[in-house]
Design goal:
1 helix; alpha+beta; two-stranded antiparallel sheet
């Protein structure tokens, strides 16, 4: 019985280590796009989207600033950003 428990714990530990290594490989090329929004001398960074490839594979451009911001919801609020000139290639 003791041998079976020890083997089971070793298998669980090995699977945990392999899962951690696999997650690190997946996230190696991920990056997040942040928008910095401010008013007067206060600002905050907001995570907009997570991209799966290396940043060199994307091109960002915008001709104007954000037009409007709306917070939707009370318990689980979402920020709706209206930015029609933003283009991501």
């Amino acid at each position: 019985m003791d041998t079976a428990v020890i083997l089971l714990l070793m298998v669980i530990g090995l699977l945990t280590i392999l899962e951690i290594c696999r997650c690190c490989k997946k996230r190696r090329y991920e990056f997040k796009l942040f928008v910095q929004i401010g008013y007067q001398n206060r600002s905050v960074q907001i995570c907009v989207k997570t991209f799966k490839l290396h940043p060199e594979n994307y091109q960002f451009s915008a001709l104007k600033y954000v037009e409007s911001l709306h917070v939707i919801g009370c318990l689980l609020p979402h920020l709706k950003i209206n930015w029609p000139t933003l283009q991501i290639y």
